[in-house]
Amino acid sequence: MTCNKRKNQEESSSSDSDESTRVASSFPDEVLERVLAQLNSHKDRSSVSLVCKDWYDAERWSRTHVFIGNCYSVSPEIVTRRFPNVRSVTLKGKPRFSDFNLVPPNWGAQIHSWLLVFAAKYSFLEELRLKRMSVSDESLEFLALAFPNFKALSLLSCDGFSTDGLAAIATHCKNLTELDIQENDIDDKSGCWLSCFPENFMSLEVLNFANLNNDVNFEALERLVSRCKSLRVLKVNKNITLEQLQRLLVHAPQLRELGTGSFLQELKACQYSDLKSAFHNCKNLNILSGLSEAAALFLPALYPACANLTFLNLSYTALQSGELADLLIHCPLLQRLWVLDTVEDKGLEAVGSNCPLLEELRVFPADPFEEDVVHGVTESGFLAVSYGCRRLHYVLYFCRQMTNAAVATIVQNCPDFTHFRLCIMNPHQPDYLTDEPMDEAFGAVVKTCTKLQRLAVSGLLTDLTFEYIGRYAKNLETLSVAFAGSSDWSMQCVFGGCPKLRKLEIRDCPFGNAALLSGLEKYESMRSLWMSGCKVTMNGCRLLAKEMPRLNVEVIKECESDDSQVDKVYVYRSVAGPRRDAPSFVLTL
Amino acid sequence: MSVQLEHDYIGLSSEAASSMEGSERKTGGLNLNLKATELRLGLPGSESPERDNGVGVLKSLLVVSRAKRGFSDAIDGGSGKWGLSGNGGSDTELCKGGNLFSPRGVNGGGKGGGSECNNQNTGLGGPVLKDGVVPQSPKPLQEKKSQLSAPAAKAQVVGWPPIRSFRKNSMASHSPKSDDDAEGKSGSGCLYVKVSMDGAPYLRKVDLKTYGSYMDLSSALEKMFSCFTIGQCSSQGVPSRDGLNESRLMDLLHGSEYVLTYEDKDGDWMLVGDVPWEMFTESCKRLRIMKSSEAIGLAPRAMEKCKNRN
């Protein structure tokens, strides 16, 4: 279709050569806009906008959702000027390593300046999804008051706000359909915010307060749930008891996503059977999470609801292998599973046996900082899953031991990996059987998994790993490196060999200025680079900044130590120029 | 205060702490790691006490640090939970706890510095906590909480393993190895909880899963703590199980002298025996054999809470 359109334009342009420079398309603009409005992927839209000016214009007028992967890469003014009709914005702020406390507090990524511009230009804004942004209560209140059509708020891994801000949202957003508060650093003052929803408010479709700790008023919650007939996602916090959960389920059997409370309470027989029958009536459940203190005793109550489950998030549940096995038998359609390593290898064997449709597995460590633990998962568990779940393409695996041979077998079993994130928790740990580096493991991954987009490496790794990556990982977009590599050659290989690289984050590796500068040609086609704990110096960073003026090269200086050593540097492309809100410890070169 | 952060709850050095925990875990039993009691102990800011006075300081240390860790939560929330008009919320130095055992410092007036910490060998069964002073220091507890990523053993690397702070903190609150909070694994094959007895120089650990009822538990505790009767104490050596009449222990445990209490998942101190056994094992985090003089005001609250629960 693309070719035809272009051809039509060229034909008409040749016959209208005397007309004004603006080519009259044989397709009226409105039709083009209508067609383009069907496009949702922002990558597709970016491509479309590059075709020609008409298409660029049609695209910008028809874009209603804008995704900004780095809030400093562009300014709100630029965004609002280019896209006048946006109703939904997704913004990501801090570098990903801020999730692990590597970015100092008050670094930036404040939403407020964006809201001020949006209030003027996007007064009809409906949705705001933020990740790793700093959000204040003041901003939330402003949001609640300035946008009368506001419908959906999602905050993931954000900080700076308290439950007061949520109260403002609940109070003022008359058309709210979605309130999704996930894993934020929130000042959890009280559960009163829930009671702020007006009694006649009934539009809610998504409510997620699973990560808030204070009690909400249960009666208010129950009334809210029973009023909101379109509710499809409900994730409550751990204070909600089983009995209360049962009452909620009775009001909302239409739920598609459920996050339970702690799933622990002494129940009488009749209460238990009520619970079981409430679950039985939830025939549409696709996603289940919560279960933060699930007692094995009560898990069977869930079984009737598991027939259509595609995503089971048990990553906050200290489940044992047998309990997991019993549960999985009832989840034949499972595609995504998140668990804690308390299930151990035996539990993962059960995964391999019972989940043939599994596509994604994440195994989190229950005791990440405990040295002496003999529990957790090993290479055997991973192997067992790979034998049973051939469709596996996304894995996040925290373990304490791994071997090159196991990984090689795993990727032979599952060659379709798009996301391979392996975290051997002890830095610099070799193959525990052969004592060799883990180079061959990741070599096998990149050689076999040609569709690989995201890779996180760990264990003892030399430059060879990165040679392999540069040579084979042609679709790689995101690479995370920690405690790895022997020299600058590693990075040179990666920059030289990975054409689609967009995000590179490195910590505690022996890479210096040569490594940093080897990416000179690359950084403008990438979203960002993070390097911390490496051997980069101020001179290297200054040189980079000088050679590439369209990059922001930001050095984070925390202590007064050696001026020339750079502990943390963050490099990203931007059309907005250097940050104007940088705190004193961020130096833009 | 930084010194204190690196020590575990009884002020042992890191290696001892991890080896002690490690050996307990491995043996799975109720062995006492003698190494633990051989190490020098000291309250933050103070010199290690002389060996002979070990008992008194150990005791005061235990009370103090228990208070820091276990009671602070309970006490912070409301004064007088123990029937004591406490300095709830006041930033008393931990060391003040030491003063409790000195004749002078009973009412907690004046912040005793470390050097004031008294090595009173008051002996067991003597007056422990007096009215008006509750040794606790909310600040260290919070600092410790914010450093959940720094366990006793190795120096931790910032942000490694790469787990979001949120997840780290959530898991830590019901992690079995977490320093401060839950000491028991939930839903697994064993459920170790610490048992302290007022006046005893060291704590014990019991696996609640090995008992089927309150009777089993209390008789096991009697045997375990049989050596810690009034006037008798041994800070060295395994507690002797012979030569102590159990009936005296029964008195101690069920009679007027001592009360068996436990800390539940919410951090509240409850009287043992009110709830069904299974519910108790699911929610018990620690046990404390408490002097009944301190337990005033405990029972009514425990009843209230159970009512709310059921």
UniProtKB/TrEMBL annotation, chain A:
GO terms for molecular function: auxin binding. SUPFAM superfamilies: F-box domain, RNI-like. Residues 27-68 form the F-box domain. It is found in: Nucleus. The keyword Nucleus applies. The keyword Glycoprotein does not apply. Residues 1-24 are annotated as: Disordered. Keywords: Auxin signaling pathway, Developmental protein, Nucleus, Ubl conjugation pathway. One of its GO terms (biological process) is SCF-dependent proteasomal ubiquitin-dependent protein catabolic process. GO terms for cellular component: nucleus; SCF ubiquitin ligase complex. Coiled coil: none annotated. Signal peptide: none annotated. This is F-box domain-containing protein.
UniProtKB/TrEMBL annotation, chain B:
Residues 190-292 form the PB1 domain. Residues 110-154, 166-186 are annotated as: Disordered. It is found in: Nucleus. One of its GO terms (cellular component) is nucleus. GO terms for biological process: auxin-activated signaling pathway; regulation of DNA-templated transcription. Signal peptide: none annotated. PROSITE patterns: PB1. It holds the Pfam family AUX_IAA. InterPro entries: AUX/IAA_dom, AUX_IAA, PB1-like. Keywords: Auxin signaling pathway, Nucleus, Repressor, Transcription, Transcription regulation. The keyword Cell membrane does not apply. Belongs to the Aux/IAA family. Aux/IAA proteins are short-lived transcriptional factors that function as repressors of early auxin response genes at low auxin concentrations. Repression is thought to result from the interaction with auxin response factors (ARFs), proteins that bind to the auxin-responsive promoter element (AuxRE). Formation of heterodimers with ARF proteins may alter their ability to modulate early auxin response genes expression. Homodimers and heterodimers. This is Auxin-responsive protein. It comes from Fagus sylvatica (Beechnut). The lineage of its organism: Eukaryota, Viridiplantae, Streptophyta, Embryophyta, Tracheophyta.
